[in-house]
TrEMBL record:
Protein name per its UniProtKB record: DNA-3-methyladenine glycosylase II
Example of a GO biological process term: DNA alkylation repair
GO molecular-function terms, A-Z: alkylated DNA binding; DNA-3-methyladenine glycosylase activity; DNA-7-methylguanine glycosylase activity
UniProt key word Protein biosynthesis: no
Keywords: DNA damage, DNA repair
Cross-referenced Pfam families: HhH-GPD (PF00730)
Top-rank EC class of the record's enzyme: hydrolase
InterPro entries xrefs: Alkylbase_DNA_Glycosylase/TA (IPR051912), DNA_glycosylase (IPR011257), HhH-GPD_domain (IPR003265)
Length: 216
């Protein structure tokens, strides 16, 4: 009897990655040193828009391990993780999964935005980064940093510079300023050489601090 092989979902990788690496190696001395250290590793996206944003809300102000534990419990509640299904959940069940009152409110607001068509999800592909950020920050619990992570990790936009990200500033400090404190202005000056591939350079700066890639 033939066995059926389980087909895993294909993780997408950015079409621009190879071109971006060539550009960065040519334009930036630090990138020239960093990029070869990580071989073929690159940014990958997983899941859908709603799941990605829901995970980011669950993970706020929590350690990676704690956030994963709560997410695993929460993900068991609906038959499938969709906005419509989350809106059917009981608050008590969500709280029992380990979610705070505030995070329950945020997840419900996120689900409402997806379910009632407030978000132009199908139009995002053709929208400018700032227009997408403006839509996302209107959702409770989503700030600019979360929106920028969504642009990088889900929509795989090539030129996002998340200046509110502590890891980016720390990595720039370590790699470009011998550990001295770095301002947002300093970071912008460094990143001038990265454009139009700031997302890719940011990913490599993160890797210089932690070799294990992060996925959202």
């Amino acid at each position: 009897m033939a066995t059926t092989k389980k087909v895993l979902p294909v993780q997408q990788t950015p079409y621009f990655w190879e071109e971006a690496c060539k550009h960065l190696v040519k334009k930036d001395r630090v990138m020239k040193r960093l990029i070869p250290q990580f071989g073929d590793a690159c940014l990958q996206t997983r899941g859908d828009a709603f799941v990605t944003l829901a995970r980011s809300i669950v993970g706020q102000q929590s350690s990676v391990k704690a956030a994963q534990t709560v997410w695993d419990r929460f993900a068991l509640l609906p038959k499938r993780m969709t906005a419509a299904n989350v809106l059917k959940l009981k608050v008590d069940d969500m709280r029992a999964a380990g979610l705070s009152v505030r995070k329950v409110e945020y997840l419900v607001d996120l689900a409402l935005h997806f379910d009632n068509g407030t978000l132009h999800v199908k139009a995002w592909e053709g929208m400018a980064d700032e227009d997408i950020i403006a839509e996302l920050v209107a959702i409770r619990g989503i700030g600019r940093w979360t929106a920028e992570m969504f642009l990088i990790f889900h929509l795989m936009r090539p030129n996002v510079l998340p200046l509110d990200d502590e890891g980016l500033l720390s990595g720039i400090s370590h790699n470009y300023f011998s550990g001295d404190v770095v301002s947002r202005s300093d970071a912008r000056e460094v990143a001038a050489a990265w454009a139009p591939y700031c997302s890719v350079a940011t990913w490599y700066i993160w890797r210089s601090l932690d070799p294990l890639p992060v996925a959202y």
